[in-house]
């Protein structure tokens, strides 16, 4: 059972760390880079990336962060780890909710606008996307997943001290 508990915390830590990296990369590289492009490039590139990100690698990390942390918490038998695992779970659930409530609808609306070559008012489509809202909430995802990752790392340290 010890090995299963450790494996669960490791899986939660790794998937949470991966997601912190994904959200961080959007925040400090992808969105600033796209922000400096014209409307056609912004809409087309964002649509393409949003279609591409829905893949097994991303979905494993996204679901694994929440589910893995939940499993790790469920298998936990030491009260010293409980606050760290619970905090990580709350933060990972918060990130999932933000993604579903804020980012998915904005992304889907941008994709629904259609082919950038056929959109007559690209500036209006880009404005409706609301980059400021998207990036503000993404920053919250970055901070929350990074904090969750830290909590899980600390739970691993604690787990190593428990036999």
Automatic annotation (TrEMBL):
- Say yes or no: keyword Transmembrane present: yes
Q: Which residues does UniProt assign to the signal peptide?
A: none
Establish whether keyword Transmembrane is in the entry: yes
Record's Pfam families?
Anthrone_oxy
Q: Where are the transmembrane segments?
A: 7-26, 57-75, 82-106, 139-157
**Keyword terms of this UniProt record:** Membrane, Transmembrane, Transmembrane helix
**What is the official name of this protein in its record?**
Membrane protein
In its UniProt entry, the species of origin is given as Actinoplanes auranticolor
């Amino acid at each position: 059972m010890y090995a299963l508990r450790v494996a669960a915390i490791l899986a939660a830590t790794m998937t949470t760390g991966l997601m912190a990296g994904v959200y961080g990369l959007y925040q400090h590289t992808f969105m600033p880079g796209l922000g400096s492009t014209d409307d056609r490039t912004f809409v087309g590139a964002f649509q393409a990336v949003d279609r591409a990100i829905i893949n097994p690698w991303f979905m494993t990390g996204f679901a694994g962060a929440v589910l893995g942390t939940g499993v790790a918490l469920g298998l936990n038998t030491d009260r010293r780890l409980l606050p760290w695992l619970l905090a990580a779970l709350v933060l990972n659930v918060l990130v999932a909710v933000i993604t579903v409530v804020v980012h998915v609808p904005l992304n889907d609306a941008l994709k629904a606008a259609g082919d950038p070559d056929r959109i007559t008012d690209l500036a209006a489509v880009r404005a409706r996307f609301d980059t400021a809202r998207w990036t503000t909430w993404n920053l919250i995802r970055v901070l929350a997943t990074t904090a969750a990752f830290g909590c899980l790392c600390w739970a691993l340290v604690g787990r190593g001290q428990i036999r």
